[in-house]
């Protein structure tokens, strides 16, 4: 069905992410590089540079979306308390318009409690697949899907097959 032939009531409502202005694709790499620097350092100033206050993040660790730089700092804090040396490597991206699909490798040492699992001292290396929504040179949304089963297996919480 052609959108021009739809009645106004049939046209889907614009989401809050769609209301942000479109970002030129040449700055996508720069935004993602600054974001990776932020998550690897936990630098709050960089968080505020890369993430606006109205950004929305969906993480499997939280039942409700997290908001803004403080919400993302909460996730980073949770990860750093369990894996103090955690580092993310951006392995590849696919960009379409202002949406970026990204594959990361997360590495660290399980030296603190993670979802109730006591520190094992085990090294972990798992993948994550995330979608990022960009506008005005910043990340305005994310849907993250880390390999939590891999984390649980590598920390010894769940037996590997």
Structure characterization notes:
The chain contains 5 helices and 6 strands, in the order H-H-H-E-E-H-E-E-E-E-H. It is α+β, with helices and mostly antiparallel strands and 161 residues long. Helix 2 packs antiparallel against helix 3 (44-50) and helix 3 crosses helix 4 (68-82). The longest helix has 15 residues, at 68-82. It is globular.
The helicity comes to 25-40%
Q: Main sheet? A: 6 strands, mixed
Looking across the biggest beta sheet, what order are the strands in? Answer: 2-1-6-5-4-3
Low-pLDDT parts are: 1-26
End-to-end separation: 47 Å
Q: Look at the helices and sheets and give the structural class.
A: alpha+beta
Please, how many helices? 5
The backbone outline, from C-alpha atoms, is: globular
Could you tell me the number of beta strands?
6
Topology order in helix (H) and strand (E) letters: HHHEEHEEEEH
What's the Cα radius of gyration? 18 Å
Percent in strands: 25-35%
The overall pLDDT, averaged over residues, is 87
What's the short story on this structure?
The chain is α+β, with helices and mostly antiparallel strands and 161 residues long.
Name its key features:
161 residues; 5 helices; six-stranded mixed β-sheet; alpha+beta
């Amino acid at each position: 069905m052609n959108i021009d032939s739809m009645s106004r009531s049939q046209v889907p409502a614009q989401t809050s992410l769609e209301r942000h202005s479109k970002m030129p694709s040449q700055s996508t790499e720069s935004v993602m590089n600054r974001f990776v620097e932020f998550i690897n350092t936990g630098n709050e100033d960089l968080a505020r540079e890369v993430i606006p206050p109205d950004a929305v993040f969906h993480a499997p660790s939280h039942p409700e979306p997290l908001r803004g730089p403080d919400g993302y700092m909460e996730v980073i804090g949770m990860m750093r308390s369990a894996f103090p040396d955690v580092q993310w490597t951006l392995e590849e991206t696919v960009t379409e318009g202002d949406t970026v699909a990204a594959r990361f490798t997360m590495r660290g040492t399980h030296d603190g409690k993670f979802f109730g699992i006591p520190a094992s001292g085990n090294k972990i290396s798992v993948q994550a697949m995330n979608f990022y929504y960009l506008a005005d040179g910043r990340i305005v949304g994310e849907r993250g899907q880390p390999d939590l089963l891999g984390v649980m297996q590598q920390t010894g919480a769940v037996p590997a097959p």
